[in-house]
Structures are given as structure tokens and as C-alpha cells.
Amino acid sequence: MRNTAARCCANVTWMMALLVTLTTLGCGSDTGGRVDVSGKVTLGGAPLESGTIEIVAADGSSQSGATITNGEFSIPAERGLKPGDYIVKIFAGDETVAAVEAAPGDSSAAPVSKERIPPEYNVESTLTAKIEASDNVLSFDIP
Asked: How distant, in Å, are the alpha carbons of 1, 17, 18, 19, 20 from that of 6?
């Protein structure tokens, strides 16, 4: 009788452990079908030091973006994109713009940097990307 009770208790213990394990596996973050996207951006053959990348659904329904640092960017799945066709826009301002003298509190004289990236790669972008369900490592070479 003792042997049967011990086996029953052991079985219940294993079943509880299995239940906890299966429940925990199902508790990952739900990304709503979005996937992570990363990649590299070069300008004139060298990594783009700093800038931003915007990736916009071809139908305009969604978008995401990231900062480009030392030629690399990364968008985690939580802020990522759903599989599909996208238009890519890359921006990088000229960091050598001199400060504009203005009266205190006058925000109209804020310095505006000159865009280093040609319009066909941002405001009039011809760059495209296809986002897949996995393995989204993109590469953009701007002459």
C-alpha cells in the first residue's frame, strides 16, 4: 500500500512539473506577428556613422524604425514589422552645421542640418525590402 501511495505522489509531482513547464513555455511575449529586423547601412562604401532608418509598409498600414550607429541598426520584434513588402527611408543629417544666433526663446532660428543622403533614399525613396517570417538581415549601400 505504501509503494502505491509513493508512486501516486511521484506521478502527481511529475505531472505538476510538466504542467508548470508547458504553461511557462506559452507565456512568451506576443509580438502580434511582428518580427525583428536588423542590418547594415553604408554611405560611399563606409559604414554610416549615425542616422535613422524608417521602414514603411508599401500600403502605408504600418511602419517602424531605428537609429543607425556605426553602420548598424536593429529593430526588436516587439517594435518590429509583419512579413510583407516595405519602402525603406534612410536619413543622416550633416553634423557640422553651425549654431544659428537667435534671441532667447526664439525657436524659429533652430539650426537645421543639411541632409547627407540623396532624396531617392529617403523622401523620394526607391529602396524596398521584403520582410520574411524570419532571418531579416538587410543591407543598404548608398553611393
From this structure: 9, 17, 18, 20, 21
Would you say 69 and 75 are in contact if contact means Cβ atoms under 8 Å apart?
no
Q: pLDDT digits over 36-86, tens only? A: 999 999 999 999 999 999 999 999 999 999 999 999 999 999 999 999 999
Cell, residue 139: 543591407
The β-bridge relationship of strands 137-142 and 37-43 is parallel
Cβ count within 10 A of residue 124: 9
23's grid cell: 504553461
The helix/strand/coil state of 51 is strand
pLDDT in tens, 39-50: 999 999 999 999
Rounded Cα distance between 80 and 129, Å, is: 14
